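This part of the workshop introduces the protein records we will be handling. An example says more than a description, so a record of this kind follows:
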Amino acid sequence: MDDSLRDLILVLAAAALGAGIGWCVRTLLWRRKLRRRQRFLGLPDNSECLLVVNRDAGGDGAVGRNDVFALLELSALVKDCRSHVQVVSADTARQGFGERTEFCVGGPVSNRRTAAHLQSLLPGVRINTASEPGPDRGCFTVGSERYRLESGVAEYVLLARLTAGQDARPVFLLCGQRSVTSQAAARYLARNQARLARKHGINGNFCLLLKVANSDAYGADVVELVADVTRAASDPPPAPAPALPAASSDKRGAHRAS
């Protein structure tokens, strides 16, 4: 074997070895990334999760167009984790939480399960559910801050990851002032899941307030993070001060008159 042939064989062997090492490294990194995503979403291989959908405003049991888009975003997220989806209506999802990952879509008016999660897990959030038109209709109050709905201009949505214990599977809550905000929150979760896991921890709870800007022009594409409201949303509102007894007021008035 001459020197040129031997050198060619060595070059080819080195190239094959480098390619093999590179493939192994990429595979290990991909698997590590997948495992982190699965732990953050609570979706191990071949697991099943719930997509709890709200009813359309028309009341005929159909799912609204923007809510369907939100479900598609979430379904793709679940599929990437090698898991399976079960879609259930909020009116029929009569079960606890923690055994399976749950994605709950919609506000408390159209989704009674959202209302239950807010009451149990986010007591610091209050939502004006009045049906009468007015400036405070649909307003979010988180702690002491208020966020009014400006339809088509500025609409707010809560994106939360909530757990009931250390080993419980998470509930992802997408609760917005309009259906377009649910789609925006689902898209935000899909695009930022890795960053959220790094910031809040793979098993960490959080509640983010997002704003959808100019949805009449841009749809669900322009989303801004307003604030991390985890603490304010998790703490129950302060109890109102007790009213002064009427008898005491009468006594003081009588004392001053005398």
